[in-house]
Structures are given as structure tokens and as C-alpha cells.
Amino acid sequence: MPRTAKTRNVELSAGLLVFRRVNELEVLLGHPGGPFWAKKDDGAWTIPKGQVEPGDDLLTTARREFAEETNLAAAGEVVALAPVKQRNGKIVHAFAIEADLDLSPFTSNTFEMEWPPKSGQLKNFPEIDRIAYFTLPVALGKILAYQRPFLLELKKRLG
Fold first, then answer.
1. What is the tens place of the pLDDT at every residue in 113-134?
2. SS3 (DSSP) at 149
3. DSSP letter string over 81-133?
């Protein structure tokens, strides 16, 4: 698996799948911000991730995007998980890392979009509006369907 993105036709994203083992395995997921996701819960959560530019290192991008979208830093060894493909063809790379993070400093970067549609008004929304640790059975229901393989692989690797 390449560690850097090269000139390509397919888009790549990279993110961190943070997990902890307190009483049982829990994973950290983010809820997407903005009006489209506001009333969605089950099947809407994601790992913090972002666009990999040509020539960028996948892990460096994953760590940067995690920090930008959560205001948190997850340090330590990582395990590369098998990439998954979104419906639009984008390939998402994830790196699992064990970290029991204090979530109180959470804040996210923002994006701007016209809202309400056709109003001519631009508004800022957080990339991620909230984060939380979930037990694996709950996380499997919360996460976007195409990202479920990340959770299943993590479970298999941890036994």
C-alpha cells in the first residue's frame, strides 16, 4: 500500500480511528456538521478524515485532519487498516491508534456554504459538530455504512 498520494484520477482521504479499552473496546467518532447532517444520527457518524493532496503522506494527512477537525492530538503507534471506497469512488485510508483522549478541548474547523439554499447568504458550519466514544456495537450503528469495515477490522485485529 502506498504511503503517499501520487498524481491520480481517484480522490483519497485519510483519517484516524482512535480507540480505547476502558471496560470494553470503544471508538471515537465525529458527527458531521452543517444543515444536511443536523437531524441525522444513526448511519451518519464518521472517523475524522480529510483530503490527501498529491504527494502528501497518508499518515501525516490523517493526523493533520484529526487535529483540524477535533482540536485534539492522538500520539502513538498506528496500524494501517485496509482502505475502503465511498460510493463516489473516493478511497479512504484509516489508521487505528489507541488513545483515551480528554474530549473537553474539542472544537472543529469550519466550512462555508450558502444557507438557506438560493438565499445568497453564506454561513459557517463546523466540519464536525460533536465527537464521542462509542462501544463497538453502538458504533457499528452510528458510523457511515462504507466505514463499517474499519470497525470490523479493528475488532478482528484486537481479538
1. 999 999 999 999 999 999 999 9
2. helix
3. PPPEE-TTS-EEEEEEEE-----TT----EEEEESSTTS--EEEEESEEEEEE
C-alpha span between 47 and 31 (Å, rounded): 9
Neighbours of 40 (CB within 10 A): 11
Would the CA dihedral through 127, 69, 81, 132 be positive or negative? negative
Kindly report, residue by residue over 82-102, the tens digit of the pLDDT: 999 998 999 999 999 999 999
CA gap 36, 46 in Å, rounded: 14
For residue 54, cis peptide bond before it (omega within 30 degrees of 0): no
Least Cα distance to 2 among 47, 65, 55, 63 occurs for: 55
